[in-house]
Amino acid sequence: MPSLFTQIMRRELPGEIVYETERETAFLDLYPASEGHTLVVPRLEVARFDELPPDDLASLMRTVQLVAKGVTRAMGTPHYTLRLNNGAPSGQIVFHVHFHVIPRWDGVPMDKRKLPPEKMREIGERIRAAIADVQAGR
Known about the structure:
This protein is of the alpha+beta class and 138 residues long. It is built from three helices and five strands.
């Protein structure tokens, strides 16, 4: 069965998608550690980071960097946590490799909580616009 993330990328499950390429999709975390918490996921469904082929890995890292720039610009902070949980003992819950881009404003420990759909749409729009600005060199 396809992972939760593959189902979101296929539009079989709802998700606030903020950026897509041929190889990756970025969407808001359903239980964000902070507003703007975004996941960057390769379309190739593998469980572990070290299983990604080199070309997919290079593309994923370029997309992670672009999305991090867009998220921080949209959320009004230059600070963020970049997280990869590789395997269950590290905290991986969905076994489809993915990076978390978590905007930060303070040093307070992160507390995951679900946001209302309208707030997710509003944050998603801000991030999409910021990514477009970054790509346009603005």
